């Protein structure tokens, strides 16, 4: 069964804004679940999805292969990335189910699996099957949760502070309803959605200049 993510981002920018949101989250009953550093390596989408799926499937547990195939082969567009979260190495594939991109879209399906290898080894495996790097990202992440709401506050290289509000459902028919609910919740916390077109411009700028920002505290502003 697919899991559908509804994610809405808000650009906080300054530390003071992140601190204010953090206080509101805690006052509303959300709790801090984890804090960790992340390295995220984005890859350009494979030219032949079937070949990509066939090459990766043997490396996955049998009970996860069907889900992986469905996301890779049936998604509208896919984004492939590797992640190291304090030593936990993950293969992540996201696919769009709306008109947004698979990298930054609001409505997506996702495959995520911990891999028994290092980040470099996982990257090498993807390169060996024909994928190429799009960009490398680094961030510090705080994860908050309460009821069925998940919120992250990230300090991203290039972007500065960014919040993401998320709900997850197994029922695709509820995606639009949950998106509306998320926007209302964000309003209660005093934050606004980062417009998709601006997010895409920021993403494009970072991809072209990532070597200047990766692993640093440098921030750029794209309007």
Key descriptive features of the protein:
8-stranded antiparallel β-barrel; Hypothetical Protein Pfu-838710-001; alpha+beta; globular; 223 residues; 34% helix
3D architecture notes:
The structure is a single chain. With 223 residues, the chain is an alpha+beta fold. It has one domain: Hypothetical Protein Pfu-838710-001, CATH 2.40.320. It has 6 helices and 8 strands. The chain has helices at residues 15-27, 49-56, 62-74, 119-128, 175-188, 196-213; strands at residues 4-13, 31-43, 78-85, 88-96, 107-114, 133-146, 149-156, 160-169. The chain has an 8-stranded antiparallel beta barrel with strand order 1-5-4-3-2-6-7-8, surrounded by 5 helices. It is globular, with a radius of gyration of 17 Å. It starts with a strand and ends in a 10-residue tail after the last helix. The model has no long low-confidence stretch (mean pLDDT 92).
**CATH class bucket:** Mainly Beta
Judging by the overall fold, what is the CATH architecture?
Beta Barrel
The number of distinct structural domains comes to 1
Mean of pLDDT? 92
What gyration radius follows from the Cα positions, in whole Å? 17 Å
> How many strands appear in the DSSP assignment?
8
Rough outline? globular
The CATH superfamily is Hypothetical Protein Pfu-838710-001
- N-to-C order of helices and strands: EHEHHEEEHEEEHH
Supply the helix-strand structural class. alpha+beta
Low-pLDDT runs? none
The amount of beta strand, in percent, is: 35-45%
Q: How much helix is in the residues?
A: 25-40%
């Amino acid at each position: 069964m697919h899991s559908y993510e509804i994610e809405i981002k808000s650009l906080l920018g300054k530390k003071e804004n992140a601190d204010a949101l953090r206080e509101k989250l805690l006052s509303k009953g959300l709790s801090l679940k984890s804090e960790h550093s992340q390295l995220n390596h984005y890859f350009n989408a494979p030219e032949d999805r079937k070949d990509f799926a066939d090459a990766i499937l043997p490396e996955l547990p049998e009970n996860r292969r069907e889900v992986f195939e469905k996301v890779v082969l049936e998604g509208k567009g896919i984004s492939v990335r590797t992640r190291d979260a304090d030593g936990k190495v993950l293969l992540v594939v996201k696919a769009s189910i709306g008109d947004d991109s698979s990298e930054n879209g609001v409505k997506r399906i996702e495959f995520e699996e911990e891999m028994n290898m290092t980040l470099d080894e996982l990257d090498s495996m993807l390169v060996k099957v024909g994928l190429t790097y799009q960009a490398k990202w680094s961030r510090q992440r705080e994860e908050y949760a309460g009821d069925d709401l998940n919120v992250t506050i990230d300090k991203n290289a290039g972007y500065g502070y960014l919040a993401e509000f998320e709900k997850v459902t197994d029922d695709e028919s509820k995606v639009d309803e949950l998106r509306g609910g998320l926007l209302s919740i964000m309003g209660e916390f005093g934050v606004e959605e980062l417009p998709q077109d601006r997010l895409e411009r920021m993403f494009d700028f970072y991809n072209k200049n990532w070597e200047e920002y990766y692993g640093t505290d440098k921030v750029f502003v794209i309007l």
